[in-house]
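Appendix B. Raw example, untouched.
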Amino acid sequence: MNNCVLGIDPGYSGAIAVFNCGQPNHVYDIRVYDMPILKTGKKTELDEVELFTLFDNLLFGGRKVSAFVEKAQTMPGQGIASTGRYLVGYGQILGILAGLRIPKTLVHPRTWKAKMMRDMEKEKQASILRCKQLFPEFAQQHLTLKKHHGRADAILIGYFGMQTGG
């Protein structure tokens, strides 16, 4: 039975990376999903039903799934309302993982970036560059736009998790 490691960048512009693994640390397939969101007028929120379905489908066949989630933190200059929405979405992600009994590890952004982007700028575009180095064929198809930094972050968070005990 194959294992599955998730890397989750929890923001609305974030993503979920799914690493299907055979032997420990041997990736045979990567998939990436943009964070499912609902837009109602000007309001944006997490589509928790879609996220639940995605995670639940990964458990099919009794696969062992573990998740590495970027630890939430407030950002200087971010408004109270947007911080509140972000933290609500973050809590929903953690709740869905807990409800499905998917073990999670919270990873501080500085921690995964220090290992995965050593000797690189820690800017958003640097994660895309690092993914292009690690997974060139995948990146060529799935990381083609600047806005795909959330996908790249999710991939690096998941890969960090695999390297450190996923």
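End of appendix B.
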